[in-house]
Amino acid sequence: MTLRGRLTVAFLVVVLGPVLLGAFFVGATLSAVDRSRATERLGLAAAGVRTSVDALCQQLRAAADAVALVTDPAARSRAADQVVGRGLAAAVVIADPAGRTSYATAGGPAGPWQDCVGAPAGRVGALAVQVRLRDPAGADLGAVAAAQPVDPAFVARLAAVTGVGVTLLDGPGRITHTTEDPGVRAAVLAAARQAVGDRVAGTGDGRYVRRVGPSPGQPLPLVLSVPARRPPVLFGALAAAVALAALLAVLAAWRLARVTTRPLVELAGAVDRVAHGDLTARVPVRSRDEIGRLAAAFNRMMRETGSYVAALTSSRDQLRNHLVVLGDTLASTHDLQRILRVILDSAIAGTGARAGAVLLLDGHGVLVGQCVEGLVGRWPTDDPADPATLRVPVGTGVVGAVAATGEPVRGRWTAPDPPTGEPTCETYVAVPFAAPEPRGQERPGHPPADGDPAAPPSAALGVLALYDRLGGHEFDDDDLAMLRTFAGHAAVAVENVRVHEEAQRLSLTDPLTGLWNYRYLRESIRREVERANRFGRMLSVLALDLDRFKDVNDTWGHAAGDAVLVEFARRVRGVIREVDLAFRQGGEEFVVLLPETDARGATIVAERLGAVVRDQPVPVDGHGDDDEPLRVPVTVSIGIAVYPDHAAGDQQVLDAADDALYAAKAAGRDGYRLAPAAVPDPVRTQEIPVVATTVSPPDGLPRAGAADPAGAAQGGASSGPHPPRQSRGR
Questions:
Q1: What is the DSSP letter of 704?
Q2: pLDDT digits over 560-570, tens only?
């Protein structure tokens, strides 16, 4: 082979190798990212489907409960028609104890009807919820069933809500309804057979498929699919780029070989070794003429090329590994400490720093260390292993200035006077990280930075700082750019954790009053009953209902009713202890849990609640004369039950408090009643009269609220939807 051929081969090997590897890496990465995004999108769509079906089942249960609460058969039929007329259900069927239909609304959906809590046995024509009818003595009077059709319109609504293709299957796996195009249905159905559990399967035409259900609370066998988003000409474009690079490399190699006028034995041998991958080849420099300069330049080129390739390979592998670990951590956990630890370790490894720290801004304008590495002995502290001992006020020192200005800095350390509490070092680099949303937008639960004098103008969440690069060199601009990348990941991680925590809080609170909601009530009372059992303590439950609240809505409107509910919730929080829990059960009904409180303490709290509501009418703006707020008088009826004196379980103590509330309503409202002691025989119950009084009896234990001489037995009217409860014929 001639010298020209050898130079051409060596140049092509050096140039085209990284190009081919880069093209392969880009193609594989884009395919993996596309599948990951499709999997995440299908996961969100699956959660949306479960939420939509659960909401429909809850609506059907509320509709069935509304019909079941009507005791008169004729009125019950009218109530069924009203439920259908209001769109709460497509059909309502009332059956007697033997299962025969006693009344059914017109135009019901075709069968078969699938119960929301049952497993599907075949084709589903409608979703239904059934509620048993019982008289006050507990005898079975039949059942009420509310249904909503599962038709193409229902499947289309699910597709519109989730933004993906939705297909409803029957029992054997055939398509019942679908929003997919006819050309892709067979491929989607074939891929659905391979998708087991939460696994995502792919089709030959670039779609991703996932099955959802049947499962508890979501009895419909559904298939979700989304199209791939990678460019259709991705691999063609990569091939064209590689071909163009190869062409340019060939032309350059031919030109380089052409300018070589004569073969040089030593240089040819060295080039031959380079062509076989030996980048350690060197040419002896025997003269200072053009050949000598060529040999010297060749030797220098080989040294720099070897170092460059080694550095590129090492840097690429390290960065790839760190990004893989970081991506897996961000996608798999909401553990902020773990995420910050991975970010800090990756930043230290990527820049060659000896030590580093991640500091987050607290609510008092102080940067607090959350994660540190290699800082033992670098700052005076009682506990070097605790990151929280690293505390730097905003605007103080290097990291404080970075948080205040929002500008990254690097340089050599100069000891400040007086000390700022920062670690000592020789060189440093620090970058801020802020929330990813545009500046000026409020995050839920976080006030704007302008309202907090201690908050920095940049709305920074924290600072990522590294100290003392290996080798003693200062950090350069490349290190600063890399650190900004990791700081961006840290900002996303912190914001994701905050959004996750805020979403959890909102899912457990009532949006109007800010109290805990019915879902958290079920969880809390179960936990408190278990705790009372474990430690041998008592738990008091107060069921509260605003008297004649429907009159407030009917007279002054629902806005006034909402204002009354908000003010009532505020007064409840002002009366109870910090360890007590207040819930809005639904409408104007509330529940208060008093841990480690007996009947005496519960009645004292009930008296205070009644007084604070009764003595101060609620001001409502927009209804009075001369711009003066209207003052609406409000009273509350309270039922009290104590675990384990009045019930043996969490649901039983709630029912006992509810029964006591109805007793307080029947006694004339604006008072409270204590539930009777639990009857040992669960089958037979006995009504125990409760003495009505406004003062405590001689034994010092208050038992009831204010008495109504007229003995009016009027119950409070509900103004809003209630959470589903067991029908007891009220």
A1: B
A2: 899 999 999 99
